[in-house]
């Protein structure tokens, strides 16, 4: 299962790189104008609020779009600070998502959706839960869903926080670097 998820994550990352590279090659000037327009309208605080909402609630919105906005706008000059802050906001959003999952885990509908958690599954979660959150934190798949699920199944808060801090912020920095470099990939 871990190998399959890693392969899916790598394939997703490859697809994102190809799309971003194509956009960067064919629409470089338009993307720069659009991203600067977005930053002028909502500012960096607006980007943080968008990320807080989309990483707290399960949405199909990828945070990588915000990284693209930074990479192709005037914010790129101080990218490391902005991306680090976005990573920290994402971790906070994930912990809010964990809290929501923890709360939802008490409802019978949620318990029916996830099914009964056996002792064997609980042992698995205790043993590998940290790595499950780490995998969710680094892949393009919805991080919020990973955190909600960790809350529902009762993964301890410190494990979720540690995995999120150790993997989500570096993931944001690495993905930014990949996105920022895609403009020149096909030139």
From TrEMBL:
Keyword hit for Cell membrane: no
Annotated protein name in UniProt: VTT domain-containing protein
This protein's UniProt keywords: Membrane, Transmembrane, Transmembrane helix
Organism in which the protein naturally occurs: Methylomarinum roseum
Superkingdom: Bacteria
One Pfam assignment: VTT_dom
InterPro entries: DedA_domain, VTT_dom
Domain VTT span(s) in chain numbering: 70-180
One GO CC annotation: plasma membrane
Membrane-traversing stretches: 7-27, 42-67, 79-100, 128-153, 165-186
């Amino acid at each position: 299962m871990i190998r399959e998820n890693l392969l899916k994550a790598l394939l997703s990352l490859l697809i994102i790189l190809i799309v971003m590279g194509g956009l960067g090659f064919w629409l470089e000037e338009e993307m720069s104008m659009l991203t600067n327009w977005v930053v002028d309208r909502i500012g960096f605080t607006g980007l943080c609020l968008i990320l807080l909402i989309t990483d707290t609630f399960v949405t199909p919105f990828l945070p990588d779009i915000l990284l693209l906005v930074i990479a192709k706008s005037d914010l790129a000059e101080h990218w490391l600070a902005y991306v680090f802050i976005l990573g920290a906001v994402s971790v906070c959003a994930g912990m809010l998502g964990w809290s929501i999952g923890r709360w939802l885990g008490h409802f019978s509908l949620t318990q029916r959706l996830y099914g009964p958690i056996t002792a064997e599954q609980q042992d698995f979660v205790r043993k590998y839960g940290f790595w499950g959150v780490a995998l969710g934190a680094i892949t393009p798949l919805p991080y919020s869903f990973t955190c909600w699920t960790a809350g529902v199944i009762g993964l301890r808060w410190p494990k979720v926080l540690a995995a999120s801090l150790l993997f989500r912020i570096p993931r944001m920095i690495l993905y930014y670097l990949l996105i920022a470099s895609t403009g020149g990939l096909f030139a």
